[in-house]
Amino acid sequence: MKVDVFNMEGTKLREVELPATVFEAPINVDLMHQAYIRQMANARLGTHKTKTRSEVSGGGRKPWRQKGTGRARQGSTRAVQWKGGGRAHTPRPRSYEQAMPKKMRRAALRSALSVKASEASIVLVDDLILAESKTRLMVEALNRLVGESSVLVLIPEKSLEYDVVTRSANNIPEAKILLASYLNIRDLLGYDKLVMPLKALDVISAHLGQEA
């Protein structure tokens, strides 16, 4: 599959061939869904907690004698039916982590990238360079490249020139800058367009081009 390469001014420079092993992989919706659910589950903190009747304060003595009062028998004012009492069957600290083999995770990414490629939602640029760190410059560049769509911008590495791009995009609500090596299913499916320089394409191809 051939994709156009643009410069930051939106001018077409040439065409490049996308690696078929990454961008023309079989599309497996179930696998992408599993990878997405796993990522969302692993992001949960699991620190929710309520106190049981053994953890709330007070209620040390029996509120009234067992028989002869005409009222229901009670052993503590901190039982679950009392105001200020403990709680039963409520959330406790736990881990929501889900396991998924690396081979399956990479296959899910290849599947999602193939979907983006089939929808013509991948935009390649020769390089991401801004003269200065200005949100306005980044907005203008993205409008020329993808219009008003939400966009995920991949950078190949951390460097001074890409730091300018990152700071310029921090205040753009519908844009996110991400290292190519950190590409994940949630961000990939969460944005309409994918913009990346050729160096980032090389990083993705090296990372996902092999089945291992």
Strand/helix succession: EEHHHEHEHEHEH
What low-confidence regions span 5 or more consecutive residues with pLDDT below 50?
none
The overall pLDDT, averaged over residues, is 93
Shape: elongated
Strand content: 5-15%
End-to-end gap:
23 Å
* Structural class label: alpha/beta
Q: Please, what is the CATH homologous superfamily of the domain at 2-28 and 99-208?
A: Ribosomal protein L4/L1
- CATH class of the domain at 2-28 and 99-208 equals Alpha Beta
Helicity range: 25-40%
List how many beta strands DSSP finds.
Answer: 6
Q: Architecture of the domain at 2-28 and 99-208, according to CATH?
A: 3-Layer(aba) Sandwich
Lateral arrangement of strands in the main beta sheet: 2-1-3-6-4-5
CATH topology type of the domain at 2-28 and 99-208: Ribosomal Protein L4, Chain: A
The largest pleated sheet is described as: 6 strands, mixed
Q: What integer value in Å does the Rg equal?
A: 27 Å
Number of helices: 7
Account of the 3D structure:
Helices cover 35% and strands 14% of the residues. The protein is built from 7 helices and 6 strands. It has a 6-stranded mixed sheet. Helix 2 crosses helix 3 (102-118) and helix 4 crosses helix 5. The longest helix is centred in the middle third of the chain and has 17 residues, at 102-118. It is elongated, with a radius of gyration of 27 Å.
